[in-house]
Amino acid sequence: SEMSKDLLPGPYPRTPEERAAAAKKYNMRVEDYEPYPDDGFGYGDYPKLPNKSLHERDPWYQWDQPDLRHNWGQPMHWDFDMYVRNRVDTSPTPVPWHTMRNHFLAFLGTMLIMFVLGEFYPSYRPVGPKQYPFNDLYLERGGDPNKEPPVVTHYEI
Amino acid sequence: MGAHLARRYLGDAETEPDPLQMPTFPPHLGLPERRPRVMVASAEQLAEARVPLEQRDFCAHHLLRLLRCRRDAFPLPWLCHELRHHWDSCQHHDYVMRMKEFERERRLLQRQKRLRQQEA
Predict the structure, then answer these.
(1) Nearest to A128 among B4, B43, B101 (CB)
(2) Residues A115-118: contacts with CB under 8 Å, at least 24 apart
(3) Selected residues 33-72 of chain B with any CB under 8 Å from a CB in chain A
(4) Shortest Cα distance from B118 to chain A (angstroms)?
(5) Do A74 and A27 touch, CB atoms closer than 8 A?
(6) B46-103 confidence digits (pLDDT tens)
(7) Assessment of whether the complete model's pTM goes beyond 0.95
(8) pLDDT per residue as tens digits for the range A26-56
(9) Where is this region: Disordered (chain A) (predicted)?
(10) Which of A78, A96, A108, B29 has the greatest number of beta carbons closer than 10 A?
């Protein structure tokens, strides 16, 4: 389906009339319409929508496209394909980020410290080492059959 | 279970044996009639049965009988429970012997420290 030239995005709007026309083109109110800043990145007059992913949109509302949580004619975010429900999720966390980060680092730090301590002060049962026959399994552990093995005898106790 | 660890790491490590350096005393010190342990299964039998090295200990003859019974009685495991009990009991006595070795080492270390303090 061919779109006419006035439905496609255009250059950055400079005058208030151009802003109103661009807002009407994107089905937005003039107060809501905010284009990307004109700094050479090529956004043109495309509206700058809040960086919220589709997870934050109401799941119970009857959208025209329920999987995309999008209505017909609604302006789409520049990174719409990134904010899709399979991908990036910007929904607010139940706990602030720095709290989560501090808790995680505290847990990780504690675990690492305990593991390092366990390397220098290992824990063991109060038993002697296990006793094996045949000179501590000299031949079975790959000892040279031509050489004399070191004699090891174990005693009962 | 952690008393020996507390004594070794937080108390004095002189009288606590280090399991990696055991035994440090001659085996007949204080126990003149110690008999050497007898190995019943032969090395060739264990090699033929492909027993893992960790299980080729002084209870391996019970293990060989158990494996033979399991192979013959497959898929009914309850027919070999008695042999399993003999093997487990032998392992238990082996573990108790290890505990006694540890305790002997510990008492000899304490005695050594006492003698050193008496000399000084």
Answers:
(1) B101
(2) none
(3) 34-37, 39, 43, 46-47, 53, 56-58, 60
(4) 28
(5) yes
(6) 999 999 999 999 999 999 999 999 999 999 999 999 999 999 999 999 999 999 999 9
(7) no
(8) 999 999 999 999 998 999 999 999 999 999 9
(9) 1-20
(10) A78
The single-letter code of the amino acid at A146 is N
What is the CB neighbour count within 10 angstroms for residue B115? 10
Contacts 24+ apart (CB under 8 A), B93-99: B94/A130, B94/A131, B94/B57, B94/B58, B94/B59, B95/A127, B97/A131, B97/A156, B97/A157, B98/A127, B98/A128, B98/A129, B98/A130, B98/A131, B99/A126, B99/A127, B99/A128
